[in-house]
Amino acid sequence: MYVLDKESNKPLYLQLYEAMKKEIVTTLKYGDKLPSIRNVASQYSISKNTAELAYKQLYTEGYIESAPQSGYFVADMPLEQDPPIKTIYMLNTKTSPSIRYDFIPARLTPDAFPLKLWKRLFIKAMGAELDFGAYGDRQGEIGLREEIARYLMQSRGVNCDAGHVIICGGFADSMHILATLLKKQCSHIAIEHPGFPIVRSLFNDYGYTTVPIHVDQDGLVIDELEVSPSNLVYITPSHQYPTGVSMPIRNRIRLLNWSKQIGGIIIEDDYDSELRYQNRPIPSLQGLDKDDRVIYVGTFSKSLSPALRVSYLVLPHRYLDKYKMLFLTRHQRCSVSLSTQKTLELFMAGGHWERHLRKIRTLNRKKHDVMKETLQKTFGSMIEIISEGGGLAILMRPTHTINLNVLRQNALEKGIKLYLASDYYGNDWEAIRMGFGGLSETEIREGVALLKEVWMNTLEKKDQN
């Protein structure tokens, strides 16, 4: 039995998550079956959504795993976990430096979120005739799906209606749905290299064989895809992650022809498509698809707020029935709260979403330009900028030999947090992702200046050795 304090300020899902994690680490063993989400919700008199959030967090962190139609089980983990956990805790509390300049690649400043407007719309949504005795539409609220479909058709050229839109609880949730949906049809998935590590690890967890396909100046190298064993590919064609390149129309048509010829499936992640600063957003690949082969993935995390945990899928008509059979008939419910969905619907219906995007583009275009100019003036020929013009980060690499891991550690001691490309894409990528979205223009300039000092000190110590 777990003890949940409903009077505590700590959310119930977090209390449940912590209690279950403790039992998994200290008592349970690999393969032990956990009670169903429904049973946990009933036993502790909490909502099913609350229980689902706890289970999702445990799953995300690797403490539990799921089996179709069987439920959740304790995942296989290394033995003797307690000592490492305690050691990490002691190290963190003892040596963690104060971070003054965090160049995280995917963050907006808190003041970029329209908080006052959101509060007003939230109150309005709560005043509407919402049925809080029901779970809501399992596919996502129809009003929000209609607004998303309207926006996508007008701004991204996506061919869809509300019936094709699936509301998901964040990017990982949308990938979980696709990995489940396509499992019987596909055994291999081609992914961009470099590319999103979470996609690779998630599809691996579902038993897929991931096939890395290189990226060049035109995006995914289709020659490699055509000779691969994959009939499923995940791509970011409008603003490739992390290189920032865009796939030209000739390659998009060639990719669509590949999918038609072999009966393949394309997952188009429209990553950072709204945040382009040097030209207009590129129309979607899905809008060119005449054969129902492209699954479109979008999110509100980058342009609005990651805290909302709202993403969406646009499924081709050929997969709608299978989706409903796999998910909607098994009591699978939309994991995004009804209040969040209704508030976002009002936000979009009132024209606030488009105005917000214009504001965010203007704000981050300035930060992008400040980052680019400051890096070039400060480092000169010591660096090469290899990706810029969109998103919330600039990718740069040194033009001379420097140990980036040593540089990162030295920078951390001075209050600078750096993000290396090699952490995500392998040691053949010696580059740094310099995020600017979460910093002010002044902080960007100050942080880069301090980084230059650390950079030069790192080089001097290397020469002395």
Automatic annotation (TrEMBL):
<dbReference type="InterPro" id="IPR015421">
    <property type="entry name" value="PyrdxlP-dep_Trfase_major"/>
</dbReference>
<keyword id="KW-0032">Aminotransferase</keyword>
<dbReference type="InterPro" id="IPR036388">
    <property type="entry name" value="WH-like_DNA-bd_sf"/>
</dbReference>
<dbReference type="GO" id="GO:0003700">
    <property type="term" value="F:DNA-binding transcription factor activity"/>
</dbReference>
<dbReference type="GO" id="GO:0030170">
    <property type="term" value="F:pyridoxal phosphate binding"/>
</dbReference>
<dbReference type="GO" id="GO:0003677">
    <property type="term" value="F:DNA binding"/>
</dbReference>
<keyword id="KW-0238">DNA-binding</keyword>
<dbReference type="InterPro" id="IPR036390">
    <property type="entry name" value="WH_DNA-bd_sf"/>
</dbReference>
<dbReference type="InterPro" id="IPR015424">
    <property type="entry name" value="PyrdxlP-dep_Trfase"/>
</dbReference>
<keyword id="KW-0805">Transcription regulation</keyword>
<dbReference type="GO" id="GO:0008483">
    <property type="term" value="F:transaminase activity"/>
</dbReference>
<keyword id="KW-0808">Transferase</keyword>
<dbReference type="Pfam" id="PF00155">
    <property type="entry name" value="Aminotran_1_2"/>
</dbReference>
<keyword id="KW-0804">Transcription</keyword>
<protein>
    <submittedName>
        <fullName>PLP-dependent aminotransferase family protein</fullName>
    </submittedName>
</protein>
<keyword id="KW-0663">Pyridoxal phosphate</keyword>
<comment type="similarity">
    <text>In the C-terminal section; belongs to the class-I pyridoxal-phosphate-dependent aminotransferase family.</text>
</comment>
<dbReference type="InterPro" id="IPR000524">
    <property type="entry name" value="Tscrpt_reg_HTH_GntR"/>
</dbReference>
<dbReference type="InterPro" id="IPR051446">
    <property type="entry name" value="HTH_trans_reg/aminotransferase"/>
</dbReference>
<dbReference type="Pfam" id="PF00392">
    <property type="entry name" value="GntR"/>
</dbReference>
<dbReference type="InterPro" id="IPR004839">
    <property type="entry name" value="Aminotransferase_I/II_large"/>
</dbReference>
